[in-house]
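User: Hey, my collaborator sent me this sequence without any context and asked if I could get a structure. I don't really work with proteins. Can you help?
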Amino acid sequence: MRKIKNSSRDLISYFPTTINQKLIDGYRVKLFAKIKDSLEKKKQSLQKEQIEFKEWLKDLKPFNNSSYSPYIGA
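Assistant: No problem. I've predicted the 3D structure and written it out in structure-token form, which is a compact way to encode the shape of the chain:
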């Protein structure tokens, strides 16, 4: 009776552990590659926003004081 139970377990888990480990490792590689790509995209978008912000600040230079007279008074 015990031999029948062991043989049924062997039929259920017919994948060798090395194949399972290879599948798991392959999935991990794909998952981490996706995560790395998404982080690189976020980093590139942040750099692009910083460049645009710096260009925007360059455009906001103050007027020449001789041509601009502020309102004085209460």
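In plain terms: The chain has a mean pLDDT of 77. You can pass these tokens on to your collaborator as they are.
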